[in-house]
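> @MW can you paste both from yesterday?
MW: sure, first one:
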Amino acid sequence: MRFIILLLITFVSLFARDNPFFPSDPNEIQMTTRAIKSISISYQNLDGSIAHETLELNNKIDWHEPFVISQKQVSMTENKKVMTSKAINAKFIKFSPQGKRMKVVTKDKLLRNFMLTNPHRIVMDFSRDTSFKPKNYSVKQAPFKKIRMGNHDKYYRVVIELDGQYQYKLESSEKDLDIVCY
């Protein structure tokens, strides 16, 4: 009996992969790039020597856009328009996305805020005794994807879904809140 078990273990180990934590197909490996520090290029000169150049980027490339390599000289400090999406008005709260910021204007008191994952989203509870049907708004401006609202007993909840993993901070004034994703 021991011989059969030993033979079975030996047979199974012949078909095991070297590292079971990596996919068997290298094309299945996916990388998530968030902070691009530099790009290195190696090339061969006419005399046959190999040269290397490194371009320091320090996160100046927006990871939402595709990467394109071109021979055209492009300045990294070109004027880049900040895309602003249309403001979203609910009866008692207004959302205005501007780049990686979202301005939230309401007279209601913020009770609490926190982050949830899968998908990444910011959750905020505001004080108001109200009743309304749940609402969904599509934002489609990176990093914001959707805004959902629903009411509870003595408060309502706002969920802002993000398109990736971010940290956020709230900057508040008397009239509004600014959500800044970074």
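MW: second:
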Amino acid sequence: MKFGAGYSLTALDDPIAIRDFAQALDGAGFDFVTTAGHLLSSPPGRYPERPNATYAGPFYDPFVLFGYLAGLTRQIRFRTSILILPLYPTAIVAKQAAQLSTLSGGRFELGVGISWNGSENAALGQEFGSRGRRIEEQIAVLRRLWTEPFVTFEGRWHRFDAVGLNRPPAGGIPIWIGSGTDDRVLRRVAKLADGWIAQGDPAEPMARLRRHLLEYGRNPDEFGLTARVAVGPQGTSVWIDSAQRLKSLGATHLAIGAEPNVAPAAALAQILEAKRVLDSELGG
């Protein structure tokens, strides 16, 4: 079992606190740290059906943030959770991810998804309705750019004529997909991803995802599943029960998160204590 934790959606506004959070996780033996968020922000209250934190920001750019943290840590891995891939030109993501992986010693993983925010897509000049189909082609192109110095490819949204990074990252870069549980989306995950970042309870969708993996000739036991354990005042027995249940469902990675209203220092303390307890109970 691998343990991670994430910066809140809006991270922190203090660069020193950002550094201290990553270094504390690194020193405590955490396996990965994540960050999430949108490329653009909207005014609070614009989407009353959603919490402000999910769209209002401000958000950190993950490549800049992780580039900064890579030079300040030794072993912890970095993962976008998630990068809204259809907002970006694929070649730019390939270049930034490859260089971050190389300069961090192979410690970068790309978590991607498609998002619900049509206004953000419009601001970037991207068609909202095709984002699911585009991300499938984008992942295929990323795989090529990370394994071949020059690529020839022609698809619906990409055309490469013997061009590429000319310095693919050693060992490639794992791609995770964060998504809901619609069956069409789970088929995409099973076909294209190295792992799934579950949103909500993965119990029922994991059974379907395992079936889809087998349909595509993939071994479910070699596929990653990241699930979340929320820690707070309810006590360690609740954390342990939740983590053991997720492990029984096939979770390979646990992202430990504090409640959103907890101050950063207290949240970090809770996350560190939860990792200590869960590592002992789950056997690493």
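> thanks! The chain has one domain: 2-282.
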